Amino acid sequence: MAQSRQANDQQPTPVPSEEHGHLGKLAGELSRYAVRAEVVEEPGLCLRVSNPESAHAVEDVICERREHDYAFLASFGVHLGNSGSVSLTAHKVAWLVGATKE
Fold first, then answer.
1. Compositional bias (Polar residues) spans (predicted)?
2. Which residues, in sequence order, are bridge partners of residue 11?
3. The domain containing residue 89 runs over which residues?
């Protein structure tokens, strides 16, 4: 009886959203740069990117559904790229946190 009650009390594992998946792909692309990138869910879903060489170089990138794809936006609203150009978007994000020269 106790086992049955425990099984019913367990919450289902949440399925990651498409936005979460795209942020994960962007994090993978960012692994080519000297940055830290982590998908965080609280207080809102974003990819937190930081330059370990600077305490102030941190950017939260959000992913937003658009008509035909997903857009990556900086925390201050600037469009950084879309889900079809993850490599270029990663370069822009790395530049934004000072991890590239160009």
1. 1-12
2. none
3. 16-96
Distance, in Å, from the CA atom of 102 to the CA atom of 100, rounded to the nearest integer, reads 6
Instruction: Please give the DSSP secondary-structure letter assigned to residue 15.
Output: P
Q: Is 68 within 8 Å of 8 (Cβ atoms)?
A: no
Report helix, strand or coil for 101: coil
Say if 62 falls within a structural domain.
yes
Dihedrals phi, psi of 35, to nearest 5 degrees: -135, 165
pLDDT tens per residue, range 34-59: 999 999 998 889 999 999 999 899 99
Amino acid in position 68: H
**Quick one: tokens of 69?**
């794809």
- What global pTM score does this model have? 0.82
At 52, list the tokens: 């370990």
**Could you tell me if residue 7 is inside a domain?**
no
Query: Do the domain assignments include residue 102?
Result: no
